[in-house]
Amino acid sequence: MARKPKSAKGATSTRRGLPSKDKILEFLKSSTEKVGKREIARAFGIRGDARTDLKRLLAEMRKDGKLAGSRKTGVRKRGTLPPVAVLEVTGRDAQGDLIAKPTVWDTEEGARPAVLVLVGHSRGPSADIQADIGIGDQVLARITELSEPDVEGFRYEASSIRRLPREKRRLLGVFRAHRHGGGTIEPIDRKQLRSWSIKKGDEGEAEDGDLVHFDLVSRGRMHVPQARILDTLGNPGDQRQISLIAIHTHGLPVDFPESVLNELKHLTPPKLEERTDLRDLPLVTIDPPDARDHDDAVYAEADNDPKNKGGWVVIVAIADVAHYVRSGTKLDREAKLRGNSVYFPDRVVPMLPEHISNDLCSLREGEDRPCLAVRMVVDAHGNKRSQTFLRAMMRSAAKLSYQEAQAAIDGKPSTKCKPLLEPILKPLWAAYAAFAQARNRREPLDLDLPERKIVLDNKGQVERVDIPERLAAHRLVEEFMIQANVAAAEALEGKRAPVVYRIHDRPSQEKLKNLREFLDSLDMKLDPPSDLKPAHFNRILARAKAMPVPDLINEVVLRSQSQAEYNPENIGHFGLNLRRYAHFTSPIRRYADLLAHRALVRALGLGTGGLEDDEAARLAEIAKQISEAERRAMAAERETVDRLIAAHLADRIGATFTGRIAGVTRSGLFVRLKESGADGFVPVSSLVGDFYHHLEAVHTLVGQRSGATFSLGDPVEVRLVEAIPSAGALRFEMLSEGKKGKPSSALGKKVNVPKFRRRSRRRR
Predict the structure, then answer these.
(1) I want to staple 728 with a disulfide (CB 3.0 to 4.6 A). Which of 95, 378, 643, 689 is the partner?
(2) What stretches of 626-741 adopt beta strand conformation (E)?
(3) Tens digits of per-residue pLDDT, 360-369?
């Protein structure tokens, strides 16, 4: 309820006992809640017919430019913010505090005022909830107007009441200037391919090609909304800047606040006497050739225990980030806010500052580095016999790429690998062979979905799209990391310590229903859901290898799966077919792994930097937060790849391409190009000469008159009609004719086409 002013009783006015305009403004300034006409009347004791006079007085004050606001937002002094408002976080200051601006503001009142959002200044649950607020988020906040601007010039401070649900998209677009002023906004959302016009004077400081944050305003009841630019965010057309769109769309924090960077100056080096010395052990890192940080190293040797004939000792050493990033520090809060590193073809948005990720915690060749290592003893068949965690000091014996290590095993060792082959690489491959036996018995989900890798030239433009070869070296490192992750979860469970599991639920009934309908069209059967295991999917995938489009079947199976997430409640990992699983091996780039390190340090008594009590109590909350951050990163990475490829193809309008139908909907066909793996859309309205019906169960469009079909997996030829790089969208024209005669799916089974009623109007 609005606070009643002390002077309200007996307040005088020039008309029928109403308060003066100054009294009303004073009341608005002192109020801590939203104020409307009703609150003003109650505060000043205005009743009966006098309410009509109050309404006229407030209208007069609006006309005089003294009041602003609406029934929805409340009445306020013009040019000021109300006591409670919705703010959008637009950036951060040097101390890491959030800067926000009101979402509702009339530009005739001047520029949107900046508000300092006070978060993270206290420890405990409330501080952690506030720390979840990031750039691009909207918050309902309580606002305090300062008597005078602070040292940074802020007139307002705000404390968040709650973070509002995250929207799929902020109002962002690319500005295209018109010659005589004004312009249009191009979309960045491929699902909403529309543009907005901007009148002259509403473009602000934006220049042609700039990514802008805009608002939609109405110029009258009967007018189409116009766009008005609020902020200019940079030019994604500049060299190596196309990821800028995804960064701002998803509110990814890029620069580290000065207060976080200042903490780097006070980090203390680890003490060797407090750690196990593994510096003489020839651990090696195996990574992509362009990797800048190295957070895991591996080693294997034959077990000399006569009771474990043919067995192996495997050591996986992981950078000890927990030594440097302590719970409750600004470094920690920043890492938690980011949740994980985000990898774009043109840049990386890291979880931790470069001094940590690329220096102190990068397991560089020949340099001493602190680590958390797990020593696993396995038998000749890959069954684990024991495990021990060590807080150690290591020195990498060699930095190798996957290709370099694989070539050495294949009999073509480089000069660097020749002396490593017998003592290091061959034992690693032999231990992996044992692990592989156990993996084969476990039968995890075996999807084969090669990833596209965008290769940029020195100007930041797409040079080519590669599909890197999947090597045994990749599988070796992957399996070693999986086993280390399992060991971490088991060790924490054994101590009844808190764990943030990596969980993966069984597919939902609805997704299984859709998958079965698809598989029925291929004469494939999936076992009943009561006994469903990854092995049942693997049998489907094995059959798919003999079909024309195994990659599409792999994708449909992938879409049927649940999404993995972080959670302190364990339900196991369906895809890996593991009862317990945690992320432990990448603390440089995943906050979940840092939590696992802290939990192990605390549970096993491995020194300082362990999990704090208040942190352990909030694991469910933190797990939800970092799961959201992971989904945000995946969406940003995927959208950036789409935009880069669309930009790459933008100068090839009119060119023809071969591809396959990768999706069928009522509104059209999605076609994946063979050359680049890019996806584009063929609207059903462009399929001239017939009216097409969508047969959802068999992923087919069927012509009503001709019976011609376009089905999932069909090879087709298309012409590129439009490319919108800002949205990552491609539009094609279909050049191939639909299949004639008795329609059948390109994947195998005959399609039963129902008899359609003749329509008087055909789509042309």
Answers:
(1) 643
(2) 656-665, 668-673, 679-683, 692-695, 700-703, 709-711, 715-724, 729-734
(3) 999 999 999 9
